Amino acid sequence: MNVKHHLDEATLVSYAAGSMSQAMALVVACHIAMCPKCRERVKDSEAIGGMLLEGLQPAAIKGDALDSVLAALDNEPSVNAAIAPTEIHRDRAVDARSVPAPLQDYIGGSLDTVEWRTIVPGVYYHDLPCKSERGGVSRLLRIAPGKAMLPHSHDGNELTLILQGSFSDEVGRFTAGDIADLDGDIEHQPLVDSEVDCICLIATEAPLKFSTLLGKIVQPITGF
Ligand SMILES: [Zn+2]
After folding, report:
1. What domains does the chain contain, in order, with CATH numbers?
2. Which ranges of the chain would DSSP assign to H, the alpha helix?
3. Transmembrane stretches, by residue range (predicted)?
4. Rounded to the nearest whole angstrom, what is the distance from the C-alpha of residue 63 to the centroid of ligand 1?
């Protein structure tokens, strides 16, 4: 597989630090499973994080510090519990046509058995249970050749990993294994340019902002 579009640095560091929502971490984990280059980058990022921790000077702490830490851990939302980075990037590489291992936990080993719901003819989705705190979602999207996703921008980051087929948008052309790592400033309208349906794994931090009337009409129905 020839991956051309990779994770940006901020996304990678956030993932390695475990400070990402479960929805976004799933997409990152799947790209890492498909991309040897980003697997190496995550390892480097984790190593740097470890060195920084080792370099910290010990500081005086209050007597009840342990109780406070334990209480904080109890209250910690378990957003990343299902997807620990160290678990994923070892021995979990896959070839282009397989479902990446982190996604297999949700849909099994084949894209052919996914149950799709229709948005409009030629555009289908399948919800995944991973959420993010600000109302974002993770889902599979399947778009027929020649069809376009509705033009939209975002309130936060959007990650799109291509599992099958290809699309082009204002940023470039994306094929299997590529990840589109977009921030809120970009408005784009992906157009499928492969002969087969394009299947993507998408996560958003917050609901998309549609710029067309149709987008605004279907948004309450699909929850995008
Ligand atoms: Zn990569």
Report:
1. 1-224 (2.60.120.10)
2. 9-16, 22-34, 36-55, 65-75, 85-88, 101-107, 213-222
3. 12-34
4. 45
